[in-house]
Every structure is written in C-alpha cells, then in structure tokens.
Amino acid sequence: MATIVEPTIFELSAPGRRGVTMPASDVPETALPPQDLLRSELPLPELAEVDVVRHYMRLSKFNYNVDAGFYPLGSCTMKYNPKINEDTCRLPGFLYTHPLQPIETVQGNLVLMYEMQEWLKEISGFAGVTLQPAAGAQGEFSGVLMMRAYHKMRGDEKRIKMLIPDAAHGTNPASVGMLGMSVVTIPSDERGNVDLKALSAACDDTVVGMMLTNPNTLGMFDEHVEKVIELVHGCGGLMYGDGANLNALLGIVRPGDLGFDVMHFNLHKTFSVPHGGGGPGCGPVGVGPKLVDFLPAPLVGIIEEESEDVPPLYGFVTPKHSIGRMKAFHGHFGGGLVRAYTYIAMHGPDGLKDIAQYAVLNANYLQARLRDTYHIPFDRICMHEFVMEGQFEGSPIRALDISKRLMDYNFHPPTNYFPLIVHEALMIEPTETENKDTLDRFVEALIKIAEEAKTQPELLQNAPNDTLFGRMDEVKAARELVLCCWLPEDYEKIK
Amino acid sequence: MNTPTNLKYAQSDEWFDPANGAVGITDYAQNQLSDIVFVEILVEEGDSIEAGKPIASIESVKASSEIYAPASGKVSAVNKALADKPETLNSDPFGAGWMIKIEGSASDSLIDSTAYEAHCASRNH
Fold first, then answer.
1. What is the CATH number of the domain that holds B57?
2. Is residue B2 in a domain?
C-alpha cells in the first residue's frame, strides 16, 4: 500500500482561509432564486493562493511527461511539443476571438484555417480536408460516414462490411460498429503485411471498404499496399487510411497518391499538439476526388476573390453532398490548429521530411540494438516503431514486469499488449526528437532488465521499486470502477 | 499448461466436455489473457446456438476477447456465478470456471488435447 505523500486540496483546507478578497458590491441587492433551486451547501476548499500554487506545483513534480523524459509509447507519437507553439496559440488575435463573430472580423483566423486545409492536402495528396473532427476517432467516424454516404448516393445499399486487419487500432472496428456495419477481420501474413489471399477472399459487392493503418501497428510498411488498394477498389470498396502513423511518411509518401480515398490526421501526434492529458486531440480528415463532395460542413473557403488592392474574403462553404456538421463550431482551433500550423510552418517541406526520416532511423536503431536480447517476431526494417516480445524462455517475467521496471530507470514504459497479434507485446516508438545518447541509455536499461529477469526476477515482479508509488493493483482498478475520491463529509469523519 | 485429455478443444481456445456439454476457456487462454476482470455471457438458458458464434465476452487487464461456441445446440445451463467472480476463470478454468452447458453436437473442427497442445506451442513464437 502506497503512502499518501500529498494531501488532497480538501485536506489542506481550513475554514476562513481565502485566495481572493471580493470587492464591495457595487450593484443593488436582489433576492436569491427559490430555495429549492439552490444547493444546500457547496463544499469548496478554503486556501490561500500560495497554498494552492504549492499544492499543484508539488503534484506536477510527481508527473512523468515528455518534458521530463523519454516517452516511447508506441502508436501514440509522444514527440516533444515545441514551446513556440505555446506562444502562437496565445496570441490575442487567436485567443480572444469567438466562433460566432462576423467573418470580416476574424479573417486572420480563417486564413490560418484555409492554409491549414491546403497544407494538409499537399502533405497527404488529397483533394479536400475538413478540420472539424475533435480527435482521431471522430475523424474515423466522419470518414466512415462519408464512405457510407458515397455508396448510398450511388444506390449501392447492400454494402455493409468493413475489412479491418488484425493489427488495426481498436478504434477502427469501434467506428464501424457505431454505424451498424459489420467487421471482417483480415489476418496479417508472416511479414506483417495484409494477407492478400484472405483479402481477396473477403472482397465482394457487400464491402463498404477497408480501413488500413500504413505503416501498421507493427511499424511495418505494407509491402503490397498498392495491390491491397487495387483489390479493395476492384470490388467497389473505398480505402480508408488510419493516419495515426503518418509521422513515418511525411514528405516521402502521400497516402492520396497511393490510392487511399480518405484518411484522418492526428494533429496531436504527427503535428505536435500536446496529448495524453496535455490537451484535446484534433482529427482533420482528408479525402480524394470520390468523397470531396461529402466532406463535413462548413469548410473554410474564399468567398470573394481578391481584386485590385482588396484581399480575398475568407468565409464558410458547404460541399454539395455534405454529411453535415461533426462538431459545434470549427474544430479545436486555438489549442489544436494554431499549434499544428506553427509546427508545419516552422519545419517547412524539408523539415517535415527530416521528421519522418529521423523517426524511422531512431526506431531502426533501437530495433537493431535490441534484436539480440528481445525476440522481435516481425523482424525486418521498420518504420517509426517496432514491436518486440516482453518474455523470455523459461522465465515467469511478462511484458508488464519489464515496463514497470523501466520506470525505475526513469523511462516511460512503451505500449503494452498491443498489437494483440504479438505475445506479451512491447511497442516502442522513440520519435524523431530523441538524440542518440537518450536512445543508448534506453537500450542499456532494457538490456540490463533482460539480465535482471534471469538473475533477480523479483526485482521486475515488484517493480517499480524506486518511484513514489509502487506497483498499482490493476485488477482492482478494472473491477472496482470507483474513480471519485472521498466526499468532503468523509474527510470530516477522519479529521 | 494444463490440458485435460477428456476434453475437446477449439483452435480459438475454448474447451468442450462431451460428457456433460460444459464449455469454458482453456488454461492457455486464461494465462494469455492474464487477470480477468469482467465476464459477460451473451446467451441464456434455452437459447439455440450455433458453433462458431459468440457466446461470451471477456475482459482482462490486457485485452478483451470474444468467446465462441464450440458446439451447436441448446443452452441448458449458464454459470451465473462468474459475473461476480470473473477471477474463477483464472483460478479454475476447467472446473468452477465453466461458462455454459450445451445440449447438442460438437463442432467438427474440435481437436483433442494432443493436437491442442501442439497448436498452443506453435503460437508461442
């Protein structure tokens, strides 16, 4: 049982302490609303400002984050978030605008959104982009809605099946399930590609399309991606690209050029918007010519061309067969789009290509150095991430034990137990931002842990040993879904 | 790994007892899933079921998984105690961890314990 090292803010409370002093009222008194509309009490903690600041400062030091250390959480692209993004997204013109302002008063914001649409089109090779979806999963949902609308418009209504590889992110079948379609799982072959034979057998005139992550969650670029797309198109289906792993492709391969019909971007992965508790996601969707008329509305467009001395007027446009609005207003503007725009602008085309190349190089460096110590079931040149097994012949050690032990070495654990097709999976994505020294320290820790697994397995099974809290009871956390802390009256009882 | 010889096995890691129609998940399956935290049996007593169709959904701290019927026929009993004690699937998968009983015929694709052990070994790497 861990010791509580920081009281809650309620425990720090003492009657009468204040953080602010209310000024004398300068408006006439009015009666309160009827008693039954009022809460009988509102138990807020009472503290001075300095106590609040110190409490949260102490809590923040307990946190492990990408500003504190290496964070190789596979498929999450936990890259460093450049601090210039924080300056731009707080510029008053971005920060203090309202989505219902007349368009003439927010032309700067609209230009940024318009350029963002254009840039994402250029990066991905698509014909149109919506910035609306709130996160990757909603982007997927928007994309699948457009695929359905496309088939429906053509009177092709018997298409109900979505083909999804067994290495896919869980959000893919979830998005499809939300629309009442059925999922057909396509196995991977021994090189981690889509099994072409199984795919051929599944392709018929009831297929809506296929959702493919490329590179996939094994970090493998599908060696037959063009054949996969040809087969899906051949039976009248559409090709969805899960853009979660776009970081590996920037400036090198454009999914639109490969033949994908639709793909979501994760601005919070590829384009450095903070995530994982650091901010909301941001899931724009790009589409090819077949789906461009179905994009969610509104998009940002030029509604009056420029004339002599007068710049163009930017405003909102609605595609001909739009599936409608996916979100109130225009997506995560300040927190998401402005940061991602800044990131793209700061890097430029060559810088974006560097990102992909360094991300791939770093992952391959780690894979090459760990290959002799850990079993890598799909062992070939990887893209931005790779998956190894966290188990050893004749040892009780599991992936979870290795991850927990890594915390003692001050590293964030990699993704555990995903993808499901690898036993005791450890999925490692270093990202482009890490230097060789960091990668070497990480490798050395993992090699040392593999040694410890043989000589002192209990060191791993009890890990983490050197963190503020020890091994959490994950079974209890999953079974007893009580997230709430104690109620204020409970604190009264223990005082 | 425990693999009783009197049972028949599905490649998807369910066992079937031809003597009494009981169905559950194998020791290999519970070990792979690790700590099981949630079980939902999707069929009720009296339902007609078809081999290969989902009969239950299981969640562990690692993953969630569907359980498929290894036999076709009528559901004659459901182990209701599992909902409150899903950990029984870890501690006693072939005994108290039985999930349902089926009156009917086993799927032709079921294999014996030797073949099942070979199937598990082939998946370990």
1. 2.40.50.100
2. no
Name the domain count of chain B.
1
Binary contact (A474, B32; C-beta < 8 A): no
Residue with tokens 């820790």: A445
Contact A461, A396 (CB under 8 A): yes
d(CA B47, CA B102): 10
For chain A, first and last CA: distance in Å? Answer: 21
CA distance B107 to B16: 10
Q: Are B23 and B82 in contact (CB under 8 A)?
A: no
Is residue A358 within 8 A of residue A252, CB to CB? The reply is: no
Q: What residues in B contact A393, CB-CB < 8 Å? A: none
Taking Cα atoms as reference points, which of A341, A399, A413 lies closest to residue A112? A341
A2 band by pLDDT with thresholds 50, 70 and 90 = very low
Tens digit of each residue's pLDDT (9 = 90 or more) over A11-50: 899 999 998 888 999 999 999 999 889 887 778 899 999 9
Tell me what ipTM this predicted complex has: 0.82
Which of chain B's residues have a Cβ under 8 Å away from the Cβ of A474?
35, 61
Amino acid at A242: D
H or E element in which residue A317 lies: strand A313-317
Rounded Cα–Cα distance for residues A476 and A472 (Å): 9
State the 10-residue block means of pLDDT for chain B, 125 residues long: 95 96 96 93 96 94 92 96 95 97 92 96 77
Architecture of domain A105-345 in CATH?
Answer: 3-Layer(aba) Sandwich (3.40)
Question: What tokens does A48 get?
Answer: 């001075």
Residue A366's identity, in one-letter code, is L
How many C-beta atoms surround the C-beta of residue A305 within 10 A?
A: 9
pLDDT score for A335: 87
Residue B69 lies in a domain: yes
Residue of A nearest to B38 (CA): A479
Residues of A with CB below 8 A from B88's CB? Answer: none
| Burial class of A40 by CB neighbour count within 10 A (0 to 12, 13 to 18, 19+) | exposed
Architecture of domain A350-470: Alpha-Beta Complex (3.90)
| Per-chain mean pLDDT for chain A | 93
Residues in chain B within 8 Å Cβ distance of A398: 34
Contact, B25 vs B93, CB < 8 A? yes
Delimit the domains of chain A by residue range.
105-345, 350-470
Task: Tell me, yes or no, whether B3 lies in a domain.
Answer: no
Report which DSSP code applies to A222: P
Domain membership of residue B91 as a residue range? 8-123
- Nearest CB to A475; choose among B61, B63, B124: B61
Q: Do B35 and A423 touch (CB under 8 A)?
A: no
Which tokens sit at A169? 């992110």
Question: Do strands B8-9 and A207-213 pair parallel, antiparallel, or not at all (unpaired)?
Answer: unpaired
* Helix A339-370 × helix A436-455 angle, to 10°: 50
Is position B52 within any domain? yes
Identify which of A282, A375, A294, A328 has the alpha carbon closest to the alpha carbon of residue A89: A282
Question: Residues for chain A: how many in total?
Answer: 495
